[in-house]
Amino acid sequence: MGSHKIKRFIADTWKDYELLDSGEGAKLEKFGGVVLDRPEASAVWDRKKSFKEWDKAHSSFESTSKAAGYWKQNGKVPNTWNLEYKSEEHPSLRLKFNLETTRFKHIGIFPEQSCNWEYIAGKIKEGDKLLNLFAYTGGASLAAKSAGADVTHVDAIRQVIDWTRVNMELSGLTGIRWVVEDALKFLRREVKRGNKYSGVVLDPPTWGLGPKNEKWKLEHSLVEIVELVSQVVEPDGFIVMNTYSGLPPSTLETLWRRVLPNASTECGELCLQASDGHLLSTGSLIRVEL
Ligand SMILES: C[S@@+](CC[C@H](N)C(=O)[O-])C[C@H]1O[C@@H](n2cnc3c(N)ncnc32)[C@H](O)[C@@H]1O
Q1: So what's the pLDDT on residue 51?
Q2: Residue 141 Cα, ligand 1 centroid: separation in angstroms?
Q3: Whose CA is nearest to atom 26 of ligand 1?
Q4: How many domains does one find in the chain?
């Protein structure tokens, strides 16, 4: 029987990103030279910094619906800009991301994911196969590639894959295998083909659309996804599952223990830390080691 712990995974290895403050439903962040003010539902406390400090944001996101909105420019934000992540622990882990303010509040990176990049870089051995599902702009794919993995990157949105290709080239990497497909359909086929991976990374959203506009709802597909992933992972492999959908870490643990009862799991909250030490929980994370 494996070991089980609940913990906080804190993304505290950044040099070019900083959580400046959070509170009253928003977060103030610095990405390179650009300061952004974005909604953050889990920041239920008071802000620490003054209005004057928050007013220094170059751009603030104003929501018009649950998922979309617009950016209010307060200063000069370039159309796109680059951000670098350099790991101290894994010298080959040097990633570059091209960022852009989109109408969905996101900008092409989830900085809290650096915890996962470090973990993946530590687990991958040259030539291992890594599958990244719901892969977005590819932080986990780039981390695995920089450690020598053979990477398959699956996302339903072609433009998102094009964006990742830019990040791969900026990071001086080549040879990621791109798959524009519904992750669930891809998994079903991989199981039929008997393909196996040393590591599987997945970050399923609460809702989404497949490439043919298929509607996607996490609650309908979660159990099947977990079962299928457990069938494509090697007997000594690992899984990193992250979600921003509100599922608590204990639910992730129950899901994975159902299909892989002998694996070791470590689960908890993925957190950003402000310079004054205040933690902002951004989502749930589980690492499963077979
Ligand atoms: C929350 S983001 C993942 C963020 C990622 N963990 C990272 O670190 O950058 C979710 C991604 O899932 C993709 N997606 C949504 N529905 C999908 C589906 N049915 N199949 C595959 N990808 C899907 C979206 O295009 C989006 O890029």
Answers
A1: 95
A2: 13
A3: 136
A4: 1
Domain of residue 112, residue span? 4-289
Shortest-distance atom of ligand 1 to CA 140: 8
- The whole-number mean pLDDT for each consecutive block of 10 residues of the chain, a chain of 290 residues, reads 73 97 97 96 95 96 90 89 98 98 94 98 98 98 98 97 98 98 96 98 88 81 96 98 94 96 97 93 97
Ligand 1 centroid to Cα of residue 1, in Å, is: 32
Provide the CATH number for the domain around residue 229.
3.40.50.150
Separation of 276 CA from ligand 1 center, angstroms?
32
Best residue among 115, 118, 134, 152 to mutate for probing ligand 1, ranked by most atoms within 8 Å of CB: 134
- Nearest by Cα to 102 from 57, 130, 75, 71: 71
Asked if residues 206 and 218 have their Cβ atoms less than 8 Å apart, the reply is: yes
Output the pTM of the full model. Answer: 0.95
pLDDT for the residue 4:
57
Start-end of H helices in the chain:
51-54, 114-123, 139-146, 158-170, 183-193, 218-232, 249-259
